[in-house]
């Protein structure tokens, strides 16, 4: 039985908590809360919980997480600002880490400041995380099978308690560790992003690996063996960036499904990569004829190895403004696409820049099926059928 004095102390403790706070929540002073945060993480048991209340925190050195635990907040109200550090939260050689409901911002002059860094970590989960600033929002090094749900930038949300600069490199970047040969190495693959909402900065999501040394020069024998990286993206929107998604030197299958792209210089760039499947997306750039002249490119597939790498890419069931294909690329399928959604060139009236640009020389292994021009009936895929004999159908 609890006696009257302990009961009274418990009641007084509860009444002194800030509004909306939970017992055990970290409540910060907003000047330098590094020691308070570090103590909370150090005292949390394996599998335990570190919780932030509705509070503004300032973090001035990295927090390392190397065991299973849950880090949680209240959402928009739990704001943590990183400064004078290269990394805010570093998850190293760990699994079963859950981080959710936090608003994280960063402004640091140190090289490559990163808000969340995963190194050789797997089966972690991130939900309802909002990011601002930093060179990188989330960076994965040799990390696999991690889940990100409702990862967003705070660009169009605002309300952060400290000023932050624009994101300089990428909201998300996945890559191998170490970054170069010789092996052994760990690639970042099988990471899933559900409903990412990212805007502003240089790039939304970059997934990059490295080709094998025997396939590193155009003069090498033909080879399609690239890196072992991969990525999977479902839904969400990527807007107002230099490039929405960039995939480079990936070999394991990657997917982009149901994602919206708008007001980017490049919506999707695929380079030296095998096995990419894109379905039910909206790629709305370039939006005007001037955008085309300025170099806005929509979806670009590039190959620096004379066709030896770009293989097995499918874009289907989508509204796509413009697609540019490389020479010599093979096993590319474009199916059930509506092009020129902005009606920049209605009725195919010249002069125009084709909305599907085949590489030169053309490759008969590129197949076109049911390509529709949005503003013309009967419609066609611009000059594609004049250049590629494998155009199967162009019907409204």
Question: Summed up, what is this model?
Answer:
With 396 residues, the protein is mainly beta. It contains four helices and 30 strands.
Architecture overview:
By secondary structure, the protein is mostly beta strands. The chain has a domain of 228 residues. It is built from 4 helices and 30 strands. It has a 19-stranded parallel sheet that branches. It has an 11-stranded parallel sheet with strand order 3-6-8-10-13-16-19-22-25-27-29. The chain is elongated, with a radius of gyration of 24 Å. The C terminus is likely disordered.
- Secondary-structure content class: mainly beta
Shape verdict: elongated
Would you tell me the overall average pLDDT?
83
> Using DSSP, what is the number of strands?
30
| Largest sheet report | 19 strands, parallel
- Work out the helix count: 4
Head-to-tail CA distance between termini = 78 Å
Stretches with pLDDT under 50, minimum 5 residues: 9-14, 348-353, 377-396
Strand content: 35-45%
Proportion of residues in helical segments: under 10%
Radius of gyration: 24 Å
